[in-house]
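pasting for ref. prot 1 ->
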Amino acid sequence: MMEPLYQDGHSRLHRLPAWLKLGGLVAAGSLLFLAHRLDILGAVCVVAVLLLASTGVGPATVWRHVRGMVLILAVLAVFSAYFNGYGAALEMVLRVVALVTLALAVTMSTRTTDLIEVCEQVLRPFEKLGWIDAGRVALALGLTLRFVPEIWRNYQEIREAQAARGLGSHPLAVVVPLLVRTLKRADEVADAIDARDG
């Protein structure tokens, strides 16, 4: 069973309509890529952290979802600092941290069903044009929100299990079972979409 990101709560962010939160997230994400001043990006990071904290989600829960990204972001920051300078690296880090934190605040305070409904409404005009099936696309997006964090948890479980067997240093010992689990989850997503149409 795939675990949703949504965390039950009664904060102001929880009470806001899903369309407003998603619209705000899209707008903030677009504006962040236009901002290059470190003080502005830093201020947005602070606001994002405060919004996430207002949902009542504990630090342990947040860390479980972002710890994989921290290592990747650190590596990217080192490369960016080497090739583009420390200022550009810090700008990139602040922008990503702000985006991810805002996204977590939205997904942890909004039910997956509400997100799917908003996505379906937004995509409805494209369905009328015959370009897409709005229901299928919206459902796929909603299921992906559950699917992505599951991959990281599977990776942690497999790595720990293989390390206990003395296989932790061998990449294939982790990659192969992770691929199998990921494909299995992908089948679940596909089955869920097919079941909806059926």
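and prot 2 ->
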Amino acid sequence: MLIDLHVHTRRTPGGALRPLEVLARAGALGLDGVAFTDLDTLEALPEVRAAAAETGVLGLVGLEFSTDHGRFLCFLAQPERLAEVPGLFGPAPRPARAALIRATGLGAAVVAAHPYDKTLPPACADALFTLDGLSAVEGLHGRSRSGANDLAVEAADHLGLPCTGGSGALASLDELGTAATLFRDPVSDEAGLVAQLRAGTCWAAALGVTLSAPSEAASRPGTRRDASRPARPTPRSRPAGRS
């Protein structure tokens, strides 16, 4: 299944997208679903549920929480049962390590969002190598420059984590689907999404790109890329911050 794993609604500052319009466009683009990840809020959940029922396109709800070391996508099996973010992780700016401990303690799958994109401060950057509890790294973010994405893929490779993809769509439907995540098995709800993220059965993908099979030698799935390109990038250097 192909899911855009990082989309915002009007509930995110600067956002202009409505879930009903997003899911309708997603179906037209050939996406199987969309994960809505508003910044520090779950307020769009009822609207997403209604839009999914009307369009028949899978609409999942997570969130993007901000910390002193960047932002993280957080997915939980039953988001309806959770309190709003300040009550869940504490008020911003919240310490990244404490927030990750809290999230993983709740059984969440946590993805480092655009960790090397300095245009979306604070960037996590090489602090990524000091954090525990990550299920994956966002290796393909549609609103980040390719250099930032390349560094994220390299970091995931060194950490032995899979890469996800998401458009980061915020204000225009044209942003939707520029990056997505391919899941090995069908996903029908947040519980299934969390299970596959934590198992590592996912790959970053771009629409219109032919996907190659993952390397049989890889202990965990990495990114899937154009068949003419290597499955993993050649690291330029050993990332700083890791002994």
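The chain has one domain: 2-205.
Helices lie at 19-29, 45-55, 85-89, 96-105, 146-159, 190-199.
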